[in-house]
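Posting for a labmate who doesn't have an account.
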Amino acid sequence: MRIGLLTEGGYPYVSGDARLWCDRLVRGLGQHEFDIYALSRSERQEDEGWIQLPPQVSRVRTAPLWMAEDDGVVYGRRARRRFAEAYGELAAAVCEGPGSGVAAVGSVSSGDAGVGAAGVSGGVEADRFGSALYELAELARDEGGLIGALRSEGAVRALERACRAPGALRTARAARVPDLLAVAAHFERALRPLSLDWYEGDGLDSVDLCHATAGGTAALPGLLARHFSGVPLLVTEYGVPLRAHYLASASVGDAPAARALLAAFHGRLTAEVYRAAALITPGNTHARRWQERCGADRAKLRTVYPGMEASRFAEVGEGAESSGCADPDTLVWVGRIEPAKDLMSLLHSFAEIRKDEPKTRLRIVGAPADGPDGATYLAHCKALAAQLFPDEAEGVHAVGDNPVSFEEIGGPEVPGLPEAYASGAVIVLSSVVEGFPISLVEAMFCGRATVSTDVGAVVEVIGGTGLVVPPRNPRALAEACVALLRDPERRERLGAAARARALELFTVEQNIAAFHGIYLEIVSHSPVRHVLVDEAGEPLPFGVPAEAHVPGRWTEARLMPTGRPRWAAGSPVRATVPVPAGEGA
């Protein structure tokens, strides 16, 4: 089977999102052939290069999403009219009607807040958006590009007319010229995949299945492959891009009109991706709820938990009962230091813990998030720790010691993640916003008891193998930690149950097995009808054996689409060697 793996800012780049699980998936399914179609997010990401790819990756095609040179395409009168009509329809679908998900922008703060408002309406608006999107894609294919048109004054004017039209969103009507320019620029960036030459001429049209590693812009090439060639689309979301957009837009300084239009655009695009997908695989129930409220058909959803490497934690996990390496008075927090992790509440909670258990220590292990905000938040946390816990000394002449330490992986005391989890008796997660809690699963692999806040997929992951408390509640967090610190037998039972649960649900092996079955299910129900052509370019009847969709190389014939693009070079692929007359009779 030939899989087109679609990524945005991810695999195969060294610093890509979801790089690990994509690499494990490709390496684990060695019986299949993978073509990688990657959209890069920055020049820095491209300069860092790719990870080493396994032999089952037959090709990699990339395109920069962070920049696009003007394609130099000059439209004639008819093409300009086609663009104006299609872009006007797209803008009208974005600006029109209730249920566009705009309310969620101002209401989402954490967890499931605003999910009800984030629902994307179907019906006429969804059909209108999809039809306009595919018309723009066909225009880009016919004319050789869309970049210049999307950057034109006509695009801004079409967006302005849609905002001023009767029935437009109330917030959209207030859009001013700077807002329209910003929104049009965002549309141009998001629609750049429409201008790529990935869809014909032995591109995505020649794969058996498109697997998008995220929704939104990452899935756009899969939408077009389905539209042009009937290739089925699988969408995997371990984090929901629409939710991420709502959370990000609520924290930026854009005008309300711009935020409303962008939220509506992403809502419509998400609804179209979910409608077109053959199957959708959320990484947990939390993501699944978002997908259902954003228009996904429940019958298409298959939950597939992320696969994590358990072997690196095996030594700690298997020796959890007898190694004695854990300090029974130490709490450990592991993760990326940023405001969403709410370390401030953790420090206040630790102050309460110290009142009941004065010998307790807290180790915070992790690096700050990229950018100045992460470093600033780390500085604030250190300042609060110094204020809450002045250096303590046993005697007048002894050197003081703060019970809170900030450390990074790779140091002399914490050379790796397994050592970090092994250093404490209880692992704490204090987040106010969380998707799939990776650090929690790692702690479970290590056989450690955990105390976590009830956010994201935490309850689903932990099951009944750890303690869960409300977020932003330092007292509840402190009481749960004290309860486990005082009961080593309970810690041991919970740790053993957590490790067994993690090994059953969250390993790489279960992830690969699940996707292998899903690939076969999709292709068996939606096989791509490739056509073999002979030397003259005529279709060759019965040229494709039934085994063509079974994993393995059953035929040396090359599959080609029926319709060849006008710009494709080269002669048709030869299916068979012609037999001279009189031979073989």
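Reply:
Got it, the structure tokens are right above this. Confidence is low (pLDDT under 50) at residues 99-121, 552-585.
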